[in-house]
Amino acid sequence: MGQQLLVTLSGSPDSGTSTLSEMLANECGISIVNGGDIFREMAQNQEMTVAEFATGAEDCRSD
Fold first, then answer.
1. pLDDT of the residue at 47
2. CB atoms within 10 A of CB 30
3. Is the pTM of this model over 0.85?
4. What whole-number distance in Å separates Cα of residue 44 and Cα of residue 3?
5. Helix %, strand %, coil % for the chain, to 5?
């Protein structure tokens, strides 16, 4: 089996990382896994706002 390409982008909210990742995915024919989308989905599954979920995540991190 060949090697798999993995590209990680990071940046502040509204810094353009999602836009850049979409452009790269289209150009290179690769798929995207968006951490922000996953985080929002997890918050929704817990019937929490993103802010509430983030606070809970921070609380767990300090344990």
1. 94
2. 13
3. no
4. 35
5. 55, 0, 45
Query: Band of the pLDDT at 62, cuts 50, 70, 90?
Result: low
Query: Residue 59 is encoded by which pair of tokens?
Result: 């609380």
Confidence of residue 54 (pLDDT cuts 50, 70, 90): confident
Please report where in the chains the tokens 């809970």 appear, as a residue: 56
Q: In angstroms, rounded to a whole number, what is the distance separating the alpha carbons of residues 1 and 41?
A: 32
Instruction: Tell me if 50 sits within 8 A of 43, measured CB to CB.
Output: yes
Residues 28-51: tens digit of each pLDDT: 888 999 888 898 999 999 999 989
- Residue 19's closest CA among 29, 4, 9? 9
- Phi/psi-derived region of residue 10, left when phi > 0, alpha when psi is between -120 and 50, beta in every other case: beta
